[in-house]
Amino acid sequence: MQLSLLAFSLVAALPLVSAYPVKADTLNCRSGPGTSYKVIKTYKKGADLKITCQETGEVVQGSSLWDKTSDNCYVADYYVKTGTSGYVAPKCSSGGGSGGGEGTLPGLNKVQSSHARAIIAQAKKDGVGRHGCEAGIATALVETNIYVYANKNVPKSLNYPHDKVGSDHDSVGIFQQRVMYYPDIAADMDPAKSAGQFFKKMKGVSGWKTMAVGKLCQKVQVSAYPDRYAKRVAEATKICSAGGL
Questions:
Q1: Are residues 197 and 173 in contact, defined by beta-carbon separation less than 8 angstroms?
Q2: Where is the secretion signal located (predicted)?
């Protein structure tokens, strides 16, 4: 009798893990709750996922919920058939990501940090160093506070993952790049690719390597409010430093 009770108590102590089918054709499982995190593995439609816990992250198709699977990676809950838009498993006790410094960056939440890391990674890839990173992050802070914006005036932008919806002319994405000048909407709406477009134009600015960051941002963006960028440089410096630049 005592053995039976002991066995029952051990089973009861184990976390309940429920399985739910993938409803997308393919679904990437990432190291953290956002599309800029590294892809760990890919599931096919109909695959049963064992969800160990859930947490909020980057907004995908209107949902900020991400599911951590038994493979120790995260999938967007929107693409999993759970029968509800809410929680079906406990909240994850630790932050998103699988280590490697993928926590939050100074002054940013998980979603912003995910986007900022994509910008920083692109800065490293494009070889623009700390100076370029500061320009990119400062611009993103001013334009959108490092959120991906779709635009109701650009219907196609609503088809891509986004955090918020704006209505300023035809400006989309983290950098509010105007579609009339940046017609690749898929790139505009992607944190890393939109950063790549920003850095490409930035490197075409004469003397960009030694130009004051705030002035450099304005050279790229040509904003009606040129003084705003310099005010966010100190924040950008901390974020870039924490991100490895």
A1: no
A2: 1-19
Give the three-state DSSP class for 73: coil
- For residues 104 and 108, give the distance between their C-alpha atoms in angstroms, rounded to a whole number: 6
Cα distances from 120 to residues 20, 114, 126, in angstroms, run: 35, 10, 10
Q: Which among 32, 41, 233, 185 is positioned nearest to 118, based on CA atoms?
A: 32
Could you give the CA distance from residue 54 to residue 120 in angstroms, rounded to a whole number?
A: 27
Q: What percent of the chain has pLDDT over 70?
A: 88
- pTM tops 0.70: no
Within 70-160, strands assigned E span 74-76, 149-151
- Are 134 and 237 in contact by the 8 Å Cβ rule? The answer is yes
Residue 156 and residue 136: Cα distance in Å, rounded?
25
Q: If you ran DSSP here, which 8-state letter would residue 101 be given?
A: T
| Whole-angstrom distance, CA of residue 151 vs CA of residue 163 | 11
CA distance 202 to 140: 14
**pLDDT tens column, 206-241:** 999 999 999 999 999 999 999 999 999 999 999 999
Pairing of strands 18-21, 48-60: antiparallel
- In the prediction, which pLDDT does 95 show? 43
Please count the other Cβ atoms lying within 10 Å of the Cβ belonging to residue 158.
15
154-213, pLDDT tens digit by residue? 999 999 999 999 999 999 999 999 999 999 999 999 999 999 999 999 999 999 999 999
Residue 115 has which token pair? 């986007």
Average pLDDT of the residues in 99-108 = 71
Residue 152's contacts (CB-CB under 8 Å, 6 or more residues apart) are 158, 165, 166, 167
